[in-house]
Amino acid sequence: MAQWGARNPRTPKDYQGTRARAGAAIHYPALSSDSALEGPALGAPLSRVLVVDDEPDIRFVVRLGLEAAGLFAAVAGSAAEALTVAEAFGPQLILLDVEMPGIDGLATLEMLRRQPGGRAARVAFLTARADPGAVRALRQANVVEVLVKPIDPLRLGDLLRELWRREGGEG
Hints:
Blueprint: E1 15-21, E2 24-29, H1 35-38, E3 48-52, H2 56-68, E4 72-76, H3 79-89, E5 93-97, H4 105-112, H5 116-119, E6 122-127, H6 132-139, E7 145-148, H7 153-166
Parallel strand pairs: 3-4, 3-5, 5-6, 6-7
Antiparallel strand pairs: 1-2
């Protein structure tokens, strides 16, 4: 859960709903009716991150790390769920696992880019494959970065803000 105060000026009233995932509640900040369709503004500070990974433990730990860094995080465990959550949540950045059962990360990325909620979002892949050839191949998909697991959830918020700045957004 995001902390209230200096790091996060929102209050609990800013949340419009919750959904249960992996034994914890996901809190979605309230969206204006058009914000998910307009896509994220690059000039704005990073605040909304969608984490897509088939492993519940990874989703949980990454979400906690992002929320501890003052970011709003939503999670999805499959391509189908990612499409639904992206449309409702309007993420600015999507952390997308490459190797998921059924529909993999590359196919999920293509589907996300075809829908309003994911079209304008920047994407960083998460992968367990650290070999340089695989990383180079993934970068060909026009993503902002390829992050190799394991990742440090306590440093992830700062890393994503740096990627966001590199792409032209505010920290």
